[in-house]
Amino acid sequence: MNNHWSDYWEQGHLTSFGESFTSNYTGVLNDIWTPRFAELTSDFKVLDIATGNGALPLMMSDYLKNRSVEGEVIGVDLANIKTDISSVKLAENLNIKLLSNIDCIKLPFEDGQFELVISQFGIEYANLKKAVPEALRVLRTKGRLALVMHHKNSLILRRNRRILSLIKSDEIEDIFNLLSGIVDKMGEVKSKQDLDRAKQDQSCEALRKQLNTSIGILAERDEEALKDCELLNYVATLFQTGLFWKMDKKQNYIEFARQQLKTLYVRLSELADAAQSESSLAEIINLISLHDASLDHLSSVIDENRDVLGWNLLITKQ
Fold first, then answer.
1. What backbone torsions phi and psi does residue 295 show, to the nearest 5 degrees?
2. Which CATH number goes with the domain that contains 47?
């Protein structure tokens, strides 16, 4: 797996689609998982597939505080998991393990180990024709597989498609080239006098105007997507926090920002490819019947604004 997901989780994100939908994530999605956690019996064993930074195990911990039932949840992910469980105040009746570099189409567990297997915006990044049977393999008889997956027509996908469209624009690379050119023209800036000198440099001022023009074009095209892609934050950091950095540090930061947008494009492209349609879900429903399992529930996840966030599936192993 490319390191871009490991790098992403290391930055502390709790969802695979950034922080724009945090209120939805802790609202309607929390309501989906509470009934599953309420069904757990003592000495339970739960598996969270594609756990990311452990959002679902941590949600489970919050639910189980002040409850008598106790057990274990194991979160696995193909990426490197950076969550430091020891620094989090967890429910005393829940043991959490987070395991990195685990492929969900080849789980390192024996048959029938778990009474509940869960995944939120994760398992669909794998080949579902292999991942779903593998999840069912490690489930106990009468165990449940509960999934929340990306929806082809969700608010998340629509918004991310706009970001993808924007960061494919020629103006993006133009902006990074202009930033690099401005840093070169400004030279080393160590004092207010150096800053005044740069402001009076006509070639530097011309580049600055071109930069503003390119940013203006993107803002006019899709201002919300421009904000979501973080480009404006990178520019602001360079000319505010980084104003008196050494030139080589500024150039390194520009390259860092360029790479961040490139990896954002890759992540959002993978998200778009992972999202499920009605027809792709129909294939999975047909598949589970071949593996001694049945579909108990299938619905769209709808937020308080009536926007679609994803799919909700509940499957029982016979």
1. -85, 120
2. 3.40.50.150
List the domain range (segments joined by +) for residue 241: 156-271
Read off the pLDDT of residues 38-80 as tens digits, 9 standing for 90 and up.
999 999 999 999 999 899 999 999 999 989 999 999 999 999 9
Kindly state the average pLDDT of the residues 214-230: 97
The answer to whether the beta carbons of residues 114 and 139 sit under 8 Å apart is yes
Calpha distance 176→255 (Å, rounded)? 8
Structural domains counted in the chain: 2
Q: 3-state DSSP call for residue 311?
A: strand
Residue 258: closest CA among 165, 138, 172: 172
Q: Residue 268 corresponds to which amino acid?
A: L
78 and 191 co-located in one domain = no
Nearest by Cα to 146 from 303, 296, 288, 277: 296
For residues 166 and 313, state if they share a domain: no
The reply to whether 11 and 134 lie within a common domain is yes
Query: Does 34 share its domain with 150?
Result: yes
* CA–CA gap between residue 46 and residue 34 (Å, rounded): 14
Cα separation values, 310 from 20, 172, 273, Å: 15, 30, 14
Rounded distance between C-alpha atoms, residue 294 and residue 39, angstroms: 18
pLDDT over 70 (residue 19)? no
Query: Which of 235, 253, 271 is the endpoint of a domain?
Result: 271
- For Cα atoms 193, 198, 204, give the angle at the middle one, nearest 5 degrees: 180
Q: Tell me the pLDDT tens digit for each residue of 278-303.
A: 999 999 999 999 999 999 999 999 98
Q: Could you tell me the pLDDT band of residue 6, with boundaries at 50, 70 and 90?
A: low
User: Which tokens belong to 264?
Assistant: 């954002």
Q: Report, in angstroms and rounded to the nearest whole number, the Rg of the chain calculated over CA atoms.
A: 23
Percent of the chain clearing pLDDT 90 (strictly above): 85
Q: Calculate mean pLDDT across residues 79-99.
A: 89
User: What mean pLDDT comes out for the span 73-91?
Assistant: 89
- Shared-domain flag, residues 27 and 132: yes
Three-state SS annotation for 124-138:
HHCCHHHHHHHHHHC
